[in-house]
Amino acid sequence: MNPRDNVTVGLTITKSEFTDEEFEHFAAKVRTDLSAFARLLDRPGFGEGESSIGAEVEFYIVNRDLRVQSINTDIAASVQDPQLTVELNRFNLEYNLSPQVFKGSPFARTEQELLSAIQRINQHAAPLNGELVPIGILPTLRQSDTGTEAMTDEPRYHALSSALIKQRGEPFSIHIGGNDVVDLEADDVTMEGANTSFQLHWQVSAHRFADYFNAVQLVTPIVLALASNSPSLFGHHLWDETRIALFKQSIDSRSPHLKTWRHPPRVYYGNGWARSAWELFAASASLYPPIIPLMSDEDPMAVLDRGEVPELAEMRLHQGTTWPWNRAIYDPTGDGHLRIEIRSMPAGPTAVDMCANGLFVIGAALAVLDDIPHLTSILPFHYTEHNFYRAAKYGIGAEIIWPHKDQVQLQDMPLLAVARDLLPRAREALKRTDVDESEIHRLLGIIEGRIETAMTGARWQRHITEHLFQSLSPDEAFRSMLSLYMTNQKTNTPVHEWARSP
């Protein structure tokens, strides 16, 4: 899940403690950056380049016993690939895939790059008794695998952990219900590292950014349910996408005993329908106290006066220390652009499954884009947030509140029925882009397969494990299921086609 995302943005973290004065100066610089950002958004032609995608995939590292193997820095040192980065916990790695112009077969290119990267990294991991697994939460993870010793020894992680713990003032409390219940406390943020994801970046038009962002917010619950792949934690069957609850609670820096106004959690779905790109950055600055006040020397107004594109490092750094499930990103590269980071989808089961999820979320968003002003006016935002958490908990079995263009009254509907209706519309919307029809047919065919078989990664994991419970102990059942999962994953066969019996 990576709370490091966009945290460093070119600024090097060398310490984990900061003075009150540093926080004040940082907050002031963020406000200056926001003023500069408003000016930049008004610049004719800003952020109107070609649409593109990018992605980050997070992995667990396991040993031959299918337990976590804490060797991320050793693997990274051996591979020597700038696109491979270490994660918060020592048993996690992240691979940053190359940006692809959204034309032709962008996801086929992404898929091949990912498969090649996994193979190459595994060649370096094997001599260290390690292997990568793309999966939302590792079924064999134990609570004893987390804790201070699990954290990767890098200043940025110590700084982040120290700041969040200091704000909270007591242990993090984690309570997740489901078929079973997990109720525990954590003294650090390493429980967050149990979550691994497939994060999609979608560069969109700056002048229509709010419409694109709202379209993604509206369709994310449907995509999340169909992509779900995290049904267990510490041997307990919980939500279909347990990551959603775990991530929110594992770094909730709000003090439960603060009697005055409390800012919302730093992991959140949104604070309402977006009205502008600027608003999304400004809200982050106003709602959340800074936690890593690193300063740059840039005078953004002077940069704008010269007709250049400012870095806005402080604004980006602060935005990177809040974790909405869909996040607005400003990138100053080249002439600068805006993109949506779609953060809720889990890693796995396969490269092709992840690419199908990516194309579907874009297609679904494009399908509702032109109706989005109307749809957001008839659907209060909190119902979309409600849909998101229902999708995370119940997966494809969820009921959601879904607006129709000609609907008189909002009503509960089976999520799968909404998905079945949205899929052909997504297909038609994608046909109006520059993406090859063969790519659309191949990847949306996988989404259709999941809908028709009612089979997702989460449902497959749960089904196999419950079958194995009949003859094995819970620990052995989860390990055997993971072994089957890894065997299937290496074939890159979509999960809905996997055998349903061990």
Task: Chart the SSEs and their pairings.
Elements: H1 20-41, E1 52-62, H2 72-79, E2 84-86, E3 92-101, E4 103-104, H3 106-125, E5 131-133, H4 155-168, E6 172-177, E7 181-186, E8 198-204, H5 209-227, E9 232-233, E10 236-237, H6 243-250, H7 277-287, H8 300-305, H9 313-319, E11 326-331, E12 337-342, H10 351-369, H11 372-378, H12 381-394, E13 399-401, E14 412-414, H13 415-431, E15 434-435, H14 437-453, H15 457-469, H16 474-489
Parallel strand pairs: 4-15
Antiparallel strand pairs: 1-3, 1-5, 1-8, 2-3, 6-7, 8-12, 9-10, 11-12, 13-14
Helix pairs in contact: 1-7, 1-9, 2-3, 3-10, 5-10, 5-12, 10-13, 10-14, 13-14, 15-16
Question: What's the short version?
Answer:
The chain has about 500 residues and is α+β, with helices and mostly antiparallel strands. The protein has helices at about 20-40, 70-80, 105-125, 155-170, 210-225, 245-250, 275-285, 300-305, 315-320, 350-370, 370-380, 380-395, 415-430, 435-455, 455-470, 475-490, and strands spanning about 50-60, 85, 90-100, 105, 130-135, 170-175, 180-185, 200-205, 230-235, 235, 325-330, 335-340, 400, 410-415, 435.
